[in-house]
Amino acid sequence: MLTFALAKGGVSLAIAEINESTPALIVSDHQEVADGQWGHAMQELANKYPKYLKGNPALLVVLGPSLYQSVQLDRPKLPAAEISQALKYSLRDLVSLAPADIIADYYDSPVQLSGQDKINAIVADKTMLQEVLKAAQELSENICGIVAEEQAVSRLFTQLQEPSVVVYQHDIEPALLQVYQQGELQVNRLVRALEQISALSADEISLGGGSPLSIEVQRSADYFERQLRQRPIKQVVLAVGSKHRAALQQQVADDLGFEVQWAEYPLWAQELATADFADFPVLGGVMLARELLYPAKEQAA
What SUPFAM superfamilies does its record include (predicted)? Predict the structure, then answer.
């Protein structure tokens, strides 16, 4: 199984052996990208490991937040099979792309208020996706799909049973602020104003540089508790590529009074992990691909 994660500044590759049980991570690699040459980087990375390209391996692509737009909206009153194609017109006033340039798909919102029927739409540029898909098809004919980072990362937090806010941010990508309950993603917010949170120095954090993060965590908690009328948030889980973890953790805890902890890597990925969470999207993609390939099986964590 080949999984690629595309971000503003690079492409990550994970090669894993997957079946109904725990994945086995074989390769974890990364290559920087200039001028949006994601397809070229995908091919260069994969060609470093030619023996794993034999036999049309399953392949999945994860798009980073800078490469897509995520919008929640009312479900169009159409048959399910027609919704994805119709979204480009429903979203024309909600995204920055023209309808002719949109490729869109959606997933259901897990928390619905009485009388609501919301979906989460994922929107990407058609030209960019065509180039990525062309590169993928040259590597394998067995394409599992192209998914959003918010969907892939969520597969790494299925152990969160109590209401929790997860903050995920790496490199210079927008941050994902996600709320989980009973192992399921409940709320997803993409916050572009936090794309530099990983780069804060210790001095900047000590001077309150982490406060914008605390504010956004509180907004996610307020929305979940007050607007969606759900149980109070119990903890905050950080998966941020900061070199100053203790300082950032302490500031969020002091600001909000929540229990704050750092995310953990799954056991099967720890040996090859980057340890800075930059590989979370590609690892989550492995888990998502496993679900797609073995949908009827009881999945082991």
Answer: Actin-like ATPase domain (SSF53067)
Q: pLDDT at position 114, please? A: 77
The answer to whether 110 and 186 have CB atoms below 8 angstroms apart is: yes
Taking residues 154-158, what's their average pLDDT? Answer: 96
59: three-class secondary structure by DSSP: strand
> DSSP 3-state helix, strand, coil percentages of the chain (rounded to 5)?
40, 30, 35
Query: Distance between CA 143 and CA 60 in Å, rounded?
Result: 6
**How far apart, in whole angstroms, are the C-alpha atoms of residue 287 and residue 52?**
18
Torsion, CA 181, CA 187, CA 188, CA 193, rounded to 10: -110
Instruction: Give the span between the Cα atoms of 265 and 273, in whole angstroms.
Output: 8
Q: How many residues does this entry show for the chain?
A: 301
Q: Using DSSP, how many helices (H) and how many strands (E) does the chain show?
A: 8, 13
Whether 298 has a pLDDT exceeding 60, the answer reads: no
The CA–CA distances, whole Å, from 38 to 61, 75, 80, 247, 278 equal 11, 32, 31, 35, 17
User: Phi/psi at 173 (nearest 5 deg)?
Assistant: -90, 155
pLDDT confidence of residue 39: 96
Which residues, including other chains, have CB under 8 Å from residue 128's CB and lie 6 or more apart? 36, 38, 67
User: Residue 191: is its pLDDT beyond 50?
Assistant: yes
pLDDT digits (tens, 9 = 90+) for 235-255: 999 999 999 999 999 999 999
> Which of 278, 272, 240 minimizes the C-alpha distance to 23?
272
The radius of gyration of the chain's CA atoms, rounded to the nearest angstrom, is 19
85 backbone φψ class: left, alpha, beta (φ>0; ψ -120 to 50): alpha
